[in-house]
Specification:
- It is a single chain.
- The protein starts with 6 loop residues before the first helix and ends with a helix.
- Strands 1-2-4-3 form a four-stranded antiparallel sheet, covered by helices on one side.
- It is built from three helices and four strands.
- By secondary structure, the protein is an alpha+beta fold.
Length: about 100
């Protein structure tokens, strides 16, 4: 089981994720992205999906035309974990 981040480890991890915001009422982070069109948004989601499947860690997300909204939280840890931080960093590298 993956451990939930807390204390200084959590603070340090969130400092490195400038584009991500904490989700009110949840131990999760979120980011919204806007692309030129649906095709670019879907291509981005495909790249993230392949990485998420490889890591066996899947985002909560939605897509409406050119917008993609992503929430990351590790359900079996009960909140934010290193898996979420790693996936968020990977997502940032794709954008």
């Amino acid at each position: 089981m993956t451990a939930k981040l807390s204390g200084q480890a959590r603070s340090d991890a969130l400092k490195g994720l400038k584009e991500w915001k904490e989700v009110p009422g949840r131990d999760a982070i979120q980011r919204s992205l806007k692309f030129a069109d649906f095709t670019q948004a879907f291509a981005f989601m495909t790249r993230v999906a392949l990485a998420a499947e490889k890591a066996d860690h899947h985002p909560e997300w939605s897509n409406v035309y050119n917008r993609v909204d992503i929430v990351l939280s590790t359900h079996d840890a009960g909140g934010l974990s290193d898996k979420d931080v790693a996936l968020a960093k990977h997502i940032d590298s794709i954008v």
